[in-house]
Amino acid sequence: QAQQLQEYQLMLEQHLKRDLRAQLSHTQQVQDQRVQQFGAELAATVRQEWAASSEVMARLVEQQKADISHIKLFLQRQFGSFAPQDQGGGGPAAPPSAG
Fold it and tell me: For 93, which DSSP code?
């Protein structure tokens, strides 16, 4: 009777160990899949955010270029050309002398 009980206990322990290993293996696989999925989602999000911020930066640069062009035009209308060959030094145009 005692030997049968020990054999049964041993068999039960082995069964539980196998079951536990199987559960641990499954849990590890699920965690690995979740980590891979999270990594892929994170990478996709980073790519989207990078593309969006790059687009915003490109628009800002274009807007700044346009602003600079407008400022140059305004200053040229107010003070004449800033080109060095026109003024000999690149300064504002002198008012025409009466004479």
Answer: P
Provide the 8-state DSSP code for 96. P
Task: Report the C-alpha gap between 22 and 30 in whole angstroms.
Answer: 12
Q: What is the dihedral of CA 86, 90, 95, 96, to 10 degrees?
A: -20
CA atoms of 40 and 65, how far apart (whole Å): 37
pLDDT tens-digit series, residues 9-46: 999 999 999 999 999 999 999 999 999 999 999 999 99
CA angle 76, 79, 80 (to 5 degrees): 55
For residue 68, what is the enclosing H or E element? helix 2-79
If one counts every other C-beta atom within 10 angstroms of the C-beta of residue 82, the result is 14
